[in-house]
């Protein structure tokens, strides 16, 4: 096997395909995520209320399969984050976070067969956002 083939195989093995969506299944997505991606547990006002746990996925590795026209946007504070939720069932399956402008944040609770034990986890102190963001 050539060096480039070996690298390709290694890359394939460190990527995970995930699928998910909202409760009513109007919104559906698939994404490719590096297996060593850390799930972020944030304590900010909105994440603590909704129990959102973050899996950060580059925009280019995410595909919205359905539900574009059902998505509604909620914004507060700096308005940089775009909290997208399904207009039918109200579930926020993914959104545009302020912390990663080039990525979506997927709600791990909305991923099909998500096994939390297979991922690394880290607390994100969203109540002290500036400090927490510098440490990422
Ligand atoms: Zn829905």
Structure, described:
A five-stranded mixed sheet has the order 8-9-4-3-10, with helices on one face. It has a three-stranded antiparallel sheet with strand order 1-2-5. The chain has a two-stranded antiparallel ribbon with strand order 6-7. The radius of gyration is 16 Å and the shape is globular. The chain contains three helices and ten strands; from the N terminus they run H-E-E-E-H-E-E-E-E-E-E-E-H. The protein starts with a helix and ends with a helix. The longest helix has 11 residues, at 3-13. The protein has a single domain, classed as Beta Complex (Metal Binding Protein, Guanine Nucleotide Exchange Factor, Chain A). It has helices at residues 3-13, 45-50, 129-135; strands spanning 15-21, 28-34, 38-42, 53-58, 62-66, 71-74, 83-86, 94-95, 103-107, 120-124. Zinc ion binds at residues 22-24, 26-27, 86, 88-89, 91.
